[in-house]
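[Discussion] Sanity-checking designs against the backbone

I'm trying to build intuition for which residues belong where. Below is a structure token string of 304 positions. I'd appreciate it if someone posts a full sequence so I can compare it with mine line by line.
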């Protein structure tokens, strides 16, 4: 045990500079302060709860400041159990207190007949088959009291956040920002940019407006997830190989575990959908896990 003056810290090597000694002393003092604060918190909480079976949680909280904060805010969730569910390449261990559902770009312009997607010649039925599984999952997720977030791809009305390269790509006669079948294409505030009514965000569910394909690029998503101590993401939405895959890769590099549900993601191109899922679960789950909404809904029912 290291005391508040640094006594008990490992000895400084002979010949070490004053700077190194000072640095070691400061590290030792900081360590002891963190330990002391953790123990005071654990003592207070255990008196309040008066329950033997939650004491292990307090010991963990004493060494993990994030967990300590979260445990203080939502004691019930912090004590819920991990649940294994069938997935590829191997079972996914859902940790409800650290997991969020991220629904990608279920927007009218991508999914509805007469929208921008269909105007470009795409078969929207390939995306529409994901609506009902997402609706059922979202219902079960909300009923379990877990956090859901939604994203929308789109730009400011003045298009100042639209890269010129993205504006001209495709050489289409009608591009982002132009008048489309449901208002200006992929512009925030326009009807086509909004989320389909079947999956409309509930009050309090964050909506992330993203200018890119990935949900982390130029958004506050990572901050929002960190503040809630989220470490796992269940990712659904469209399209499998574009915005879903890009987001999963971004999340992976930021340290999140991602579970993608094959029936809740879709692509205009079935072969890209199949390959998009294969790429995620290949090489031992190089970007994450793939499962089915039935398996997750079953797991949610097991949350106490
Ligand atoms: N959400 C999303 O994937 N946006 C796209 O641009 N998808 C296409 O497939 N183009």
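Best answer:
Here's mine. Compare freely.
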């Amino acid at each position: 045990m290291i005391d508040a003056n640094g006594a008990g810290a490992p000895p400084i090597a002979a010949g070490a500079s004053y700077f190194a000694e000072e640095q070691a002393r400061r590290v030792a003092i900081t360590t002891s302060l963190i330990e002391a604060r953790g123990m005071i918190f654990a003592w207070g909480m255990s008196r309040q709860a008066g329950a033997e079976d939650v004491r292990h949680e307090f010991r963990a909280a004493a060494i993990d400041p994030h967990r300590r904060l979260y445990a203080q805010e939502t004691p019930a969730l912090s004590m819920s159990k991990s649940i294994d569910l069938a997935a590829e390449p191997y079972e996914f261990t859902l940790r409800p207190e650290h997991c969020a559902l991220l629904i990608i770009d279920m927007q009218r312009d991508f999914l509805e007949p007469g929208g921008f997607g269909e105007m470009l010649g795409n078969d929207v039925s390939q995306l529409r088959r994901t609506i009902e599984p997402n609706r059922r999952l979202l219902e079960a997720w909300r009923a379990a009291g877990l956090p859901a977030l939604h994203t929308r791809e789109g730009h400011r009305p003045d298009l100042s956040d639209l890269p010129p390269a993205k504006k001209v790509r495709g050489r289409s006669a009608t591009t982002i920002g132009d008048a489309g079948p449901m208002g200006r294409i992929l512009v925030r505030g326009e009807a086509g940019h909004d989320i389909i009514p079947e999956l409309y965000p509930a009050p309090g569910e964050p909506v992330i407006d993203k200018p890119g394909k990935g949900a982390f690029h130029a958004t506050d998503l990572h901050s929002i997830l960190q503040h809630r101590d989220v470490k796992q993401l269940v990712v659904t939405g469209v399209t499998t190989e574009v915005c879903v895959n890009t987001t999963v890769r971004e999340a992976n590099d930021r340290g999140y575990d991602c579970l993608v549900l094959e029936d809740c993601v879709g692509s205009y191109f079935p072969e890209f959908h199949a390959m998009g899922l294969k790429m995620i679960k290949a090489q031992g789950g190089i970007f994450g896990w793939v499962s089915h909404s039935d398996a997750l809904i079953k797991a949610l029912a097991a949350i106490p």
